[in-house]
Amino acid sequence: MNTKYKAIFRITGLVLCIQAMVLAVPAASALYWGELRCLVSFLISAAISLAIGLPLRLCLKEEKDTLTTRDALITILFVWVCITLDSALPYLMSGHHTSFASALFESVSSWTTTGATAFPNVAALPQSISLWRNFSQWLGGAGILVMLTLLLRGMGGSSTLMKLEAPGIVMSENSGRYLVLAKKLAITYVVLSGIQFILLLLGGCGPFDAMIITFSSCATGGATCYHSSLVSFSPYVQLVSAVFMILSSMNLVLIGGVFLGETEKMKNSSETKLYPMVMAVAAVVVIADLRLTGTYETLSEAIRYGGFQTVSFASTCGLYNANFENWPTLCKSILSFMTFAGGCSMSTSGAIKIFRIIILIKLLKRSFTTRLHPTAVKAVTLNGKALSAQVTNSVVSFFFTYMVVFLAGVFIISFESPDMQSAFTSAASLLNNIGAGFGAMGANGCYAEYGPFMKIFMCLLMLAGRLELYPVILPFTGTFYKKQ
Amino acid sequence: MVTWKPVCKILGAVTALVGATMLLPVVCAVIYGEWDCVKAFMLCMVPMIIAGVLALKLIPETENASIRMRDGFFAVGFAWLLMSFFGSLPFVISGTIPHMADAFFETASGFTTTGSTILQVIEGLPKSMLLWRSFTHFLGGMGVLVLTVAILPMLGIGGAKLMRAETTGPTMDRISFSLNDTAKSLYVIYMGVTALVCVGLLLCGCNFYDSILHAFSTVGTGGFSSFNDSVAGFNSVWVEIVLGLGMFICGVNFNLYYAFIKGDRKAIIKDSEFRVYAIIVSVSIIFITVTLVATGTYASLGKALRDSFFQVTSLISTTGFGSADYDLWPVPCRIVIFFLFIFGGCASSTAGGVKIIRVMLFGKLIQRGLFRKLHSTSVKPVKIGGTSFSAKTMSELAAFGILYVTVIVIGTLIVSLEKVSLITALSTVLTCLSNIGPGFEMVGPTCNFAFYSAPVKVFLGVLMIAGRLELYTIILLIRPEFWNKYR
Fold this sequence. Notes:
The complex is a heterodimer. Chain A is mostly helical. Chain A is 65% helix and 1% strand. Chain A has helices at 5-22, 24-32, 36-59, 69-93, 100-111, 127-142, 144-151, 158-165, 169-172, 178-202, 207-218, 235-248, 252-259, 263-268, 270-292, 299-314, 329-341, 354-372, 389-413, 420-431, 452-466, 470-473, and strands at 381-382, 385-386. A two-stranded antiparallel ribbon of chain A has the order 1-2. In chain A, strand 1 (381-382) and strand 2 form a beta hairpin. The longest helix of chain A has 25 residues, at 69-93. Chain A starts with a helix and ends in an 11-residue tail after the last helix. Chain B is built from 21 helices and two strands. In chain B, helix 17 (391-415) packs across helix 18. Chain B is globular and about 65 Å long. At the A-B interface, helix 4, helix 17, helix 18, helix 19 and helix 20 of A face helix 4, helix 15, helix 16, helix 17 and helix 18 of B.
């Protein structure tokens, strides 16, 4: 077991330094709005992360060796744990969370773009704290490590990190171009957010509201600082948010390509073909069901609420513009199942991801053929390329691992759940990084009621979902510590 | 396309057979003087036997009598649909269950050994009809044994194949796997267990009718009872112990009993699937008992143990007898029960569900995935109890898992068209697919399926058959590949 701790700590140090700089944003806003206590807590958090990060970065020497997969997994886990711990401090120090578990829950929920909250009343928070919640969502959305790849230029192992942080890429791009890709990804993300921000400003939102909504929908996070998410906003604002939820749950590299006039790849990608179609079919069924059951009086209302909610759940965002708790069961089950599928690869959304769903469907179809013709040999293809057995195997085991983690989550959460539905939907909501759900946590995704240990477990569940399971799960298995 | 002649012959044989089995309820009806029922049974029985025999006689032998894969799927799938249809006719004709969809649901539930019912009041119905209901469990359970041992492996459907792969090695070599031999000896064991349970119940002081009826339901791991509140109607610890043990026994691979009888005394204990099964049962019982007492749901430890023992054995063997309303238990207990819904019994037993051996293999699959994440080049075969599983078996297993999840998702969407809660819809699908019986909330142990609309009832009936036949047989029938001449 030759863990390259030096390299791991160096990366962690760098991330912590960046975290300190990032904290300057909410600190500045606290200064601007005159929220002194918040300002102090942001500054202290920044100081702490700088105090730990800088020595780690400066004192450790660079290593030439590349990182192994194991090292990369440890790095990812380390970085996320450090960042979320540090980000929890402002919530704690500003006095808005009295317990450490709640503060950590809040910070993990933001960074993983879940958008669940442990605050009983988010509308009562100071503006700078709300800004920090949503800003960290936005940062988490891009996957801080994806951005880091740009900064890690020249450092060995960065490509391994990318592979873990944004899988799916392996299937669509050749491995030598991670850096170019990361740059594309980051630029597209920033540009998309910029466009949404401007569109919201044009629609009459104040700069603060526009910022909160942009951060929330572009990151497919779902947290807001309003009493009931987007319910009281104009149809225009809701429409803009819906559009940008769709965009950011699609492959950002391909969307970036479209900006530059490369529409070919976009057209050929099976994901971009299937994803909007699934979403459209689901939306049509939800809207029809809402109208036919008389939940809404007019078709336009059904379209506005049903359409928005479908997009919000499919993109694993979790914003809402309607009280869906009273919706018919068909709508609820469609929305619940959609959350498991998630968005496309290279997007900000969580969950299983469409490319895996496509591969699973193709494996299933193949099995029908092989039942009838046991000797038939048929390759599974994605975007016209045949996939190796190793790739399909890894997709299959990911899927079953995901299901098992989900069921384990259901079991543990059931200890503090009032009913079965809440246990199921909160596990799904946290693992798939939605936030909102049906049952006890409600549309706001409020988890304030749960005990401290449960909150910490929920943090792990969110992280597992966000980091595609393995970095969080492997440390709990024996193989991880075995010598080779 | 399907080769019609041999397929029709098989279907004819099945029809005649189901007709012939109606003799038992006829005898029962005569004894209890239920002449309407005698008439109803005779009206079905006679034409069925005649039609079946005619089909056997009139359809000429084909030169090349070997059945292709496709014909096998069609014959098996269609035979079960036909059985459920013909078996439901006496209910409709006698007016016990006036609606066709209801009767189909009830009979499918019977033959597939599910035990879900649409009857709101059971006590007071003609005794011969209730006996027929439970007798379908017995027949279904028997049919399943033949299926898993003889027919499904021919069609390449996991269960028995897995079992066979699992039990190679020193222990099982003596078993010959030719259809007649094994099936015959399994039948003997099956009858033996039925007789044991029946005698056990008689010793508990039950009357002969109740004993035989519950023995049928237990051994088929079905779950129909002659009481409104299922086994709770006996109100006897001893009955619950007898039935609980009976259900546990029937959730075990029947081939192990065969090996045991043939002289291999350690066959059962050494079997890794049995071990896991036993561990799951005991851990669940302990967990539920402790939780029930700790949360104060039950005041006495004895009562908690009694109910959790019975419910766990009843649900993991996919029987579905009720002795307590587990839907009122604390949420963690209900979640454990939900997991039992998925697991099911061992391969080659009369239980449904995913089957323990598959659950174990899924575990191995996940382990391998985790290992590969760290050592991407490693090649590690999947092994259980010294037997390694081929890549083909594993990919069939994976496809089965994907299909299982897909069917649950689609099924839940269809059921949620009704005015039910999310958990009701999900558990309805799961309970039908795993052939259990009761579910949660609106289909909980004290409720029934009467409120569903006719199309949903028919759909659920088909779902039960699909679950019983390990999904592929029924689902292939609605796939375009199946009907495509050129593929």
